[in-house]
Amino acid sequence: MAIRFENIKEFIGSRVVWDDREDIFTPEAAAAIRAKVEERTVVVFPELNLTDAEQLRITEAMGEKVRLTNKTNVQDNDEDIYQVTLDPRINPQPEYVLGTFFWHMDGITVDMPPPFATLLSCRIAPDKGGETEFASTYAAYEGLPEDEKQALEGLKAVHSVKASLSPIADAIPEKHRDRVLGIGLVKEHPLVWTHESGRKSLVIGTTADHIVGMPIPAGRALLVRLQEWAAQPAYSLRHKWTKGDFVIWDNTGAMHRAIPYDQSTGRMMHRTSIAGTEAVAA
What is the DSSP string of 208-264? Predict the structure, then answer.
């Protein structure tokens, strides 16, 4: 094959190596990349330096693209490319980007299947901070003791944007706090997602507020423990961005978060998403 993959860690992450850059855009490469994303959760293309048009080519070759955009984002490029930035000229309401400093999965509170994958290319890399961390919720589930797996079966968590933004709620201007916290739906999802492939993963992150039928303190403590379990070094990966890097991850089997960075650094990422094909299911 014209492109090759090198494992980064035992349970998560692969790096793409290519001889000819154009080989990445072939149908055969798209199929291989999608399969590797499903297998390894995170796939990294070092300094690929994609244009927006090239990023859309890869996105559409791997599956149906889907928009997960925030209407407050005043971007001047293609509407299918979302600019992830704290630059106030582009993003006058930064709350949703600030919320990504905490572990989450994309699209958990919308009325459609969560996106299969998120694709992110780095246009401006900060000198300090701004790394993205990934945690495989496939590997985390598989690594649980059998009695804990059985204890999680049948449990459901209530997810909301309000819960995901609760760590920064006090920093949201009061004049639009209620509106910011009120977007999206309140959704119940099983803690353990049994995928059509038969594999199982955890559905966790800061959108998960409490466990249905469990006392609030006990349920939230369980959710925190599961986040900590998934984020342990064996199941997680931190990517230090260099300008031009391109990363794809399986959003249905991973949490991710950004390491805080100074707004003045100008960190800029361009994001596309691939539509999911299955709802969260027990």
Answer: EEEETTS-HHHHHHHHHHHHHHHTSGGGEEEE---TT-EEEEEGGGEEEEEPP--GG
**Is this structure's pTM higher than 0.90?**
yes
Among 199, 216, 212, which Cα is nearest to 137's? Answer: 199
Dist. CA 13–CA 43, nearest whole Å: 6
Domain 3-274 fold: Double-stranded beta-helix (3.60.130)
Tokens of residue 166, six digits: 């609760």
Nearest to 16 by CA among 35, 51, 50, 44: 44
User: Which residues, other chains included, contact 210 with Cβ-Cβ below 8 Å and sequence gap of 6+?
Assistant: 157, 158, 216, 219, 220, 223
> Which among 126, 103, 127, 116 has a CA at the least distance from the CA of 43?
116
Q: What is the DSSP letter of 15?
A: E
The whole-number average pLDDT for the span 189-212 is: 97
Name the CA radius of gyration of the chain, rounded: 18
Distance (Å, whole) CA 142 – CA 182: 34
Other beta carbons less than 10 A from residue 165's beta carbon = 22
pLDDT band at 233 (very low <50, low <70, confident <90, very high): very high
Amino acid at 49: N
